[in-house]
Each structure stands twice: as structure tokens, then as C-alpha cells.
Q: What sequence folds into this?
């Protein structure tokens, strides 16, 4: 567990062609969906931010509607061949007109995810003493 994306994380994430996206709406109803594309469709923007394009899948917008309502997301990246996985929890926002949209033909908008591992309540007790994220509201 760490608090920023490393070069190895970037290589892992950008080398995959899919991930699972979990979201929750403002009434507490969770949903999980598959998101896929060519390797590299998820971009590590900086040490704490990911971006991925949204395409109209089934037209229901469950995940994107939940992001619009609460912003809370969990992403699960899995490399089934090498048996590796990575979980990312954070806050997402819909980003129409984002510069990365140019790379994704027919995408409707980009989704930006700010990783927030250390700030999750479940993670605070495993952080080292003195880490500012141990304090609620940090």
C-alpha cells in the first residue's frame, strides 16, 4: 500500500486493457462495471490522478450517474496472466473537453480519478505514526 503512483504502477495500469469500476449513488446503492479498451486507455496523469475515457455502453449511465452524484469510486486492475492486481480508491469527476479526450475517438468525456488511499477510514490504522493522513479530515 502506498500513497502515489510509481513508475511501476504506471507501467502496470497503462499496460492493461480492462479494469472493474465500483461506484455508489447518493442512496447508497453500489454498482460495479467492466471498463475496457486498448492497452493504455487508462492514463496515469500524475502521481495521484488517473484518467479514462467514457463511451456509451448500454446507455444506462449507472456508473457515470453515481460518479456525478457522489464521486466515490473503487477501481480494480487485474492482470490475470501474471496474477497481479491493484486496487485504487478515490474521488472521480466527469471531465468533458479534457485534453486527453483527443486520444480517444468517439469517447464522450474523460473521467478523472484522484487516488485517495491514505485518506480512507479503513487505511488510517496501517499508516505509520506521524503520517498526516492518520488524522480524520486530513
A:
Amino acid at each position: 500500500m502506498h500513497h502515489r503512483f510509481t513508475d511501476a504502477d504506471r507501467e502496470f495500469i497503462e499496460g492493461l486493457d480492462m479494469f472493474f469500476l465500483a461506484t455508489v449513488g447518493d442512496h447508497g446503492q453500489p454498482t460495479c462495471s467492466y471498463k475496457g479498451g486498448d492497452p493504455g486507455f487508462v492514463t496515469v496523469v500524475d502521481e495521484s490522478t488517473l484518467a479514462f475515457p467514457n463511451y456509451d455502453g448500454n446507455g444506462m449511465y449507472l456508473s457515470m450517474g453515481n460518479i456525478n452524484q457522489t464521486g466515490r469510486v473503487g477501481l480494480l486492475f487485474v492482470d490475470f496472466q501474471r496474477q497481479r492486481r491493484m486496487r485504487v480508491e478515490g474521488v472521480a469527476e466527469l471531465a468533458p473537453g479534457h485534453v486527453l479526450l483527443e486520444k480517444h475517438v468517439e469517447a464522450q468525456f474523460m473521467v478523472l480519478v484522484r487516488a485517495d488511499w491514505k485518506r480512507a477510514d479503513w487505511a488510517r490504522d496501517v499508516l505509520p505514526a506521524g503520517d498526516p493522513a492518520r488524522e480524520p479530515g486530513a
The beta strands are 18-24, 30-36, 43-46, 49-54, 72-79, 84-95, 109-115. The longest strand covers residues 84-95. The chain has three helices and seven strands.
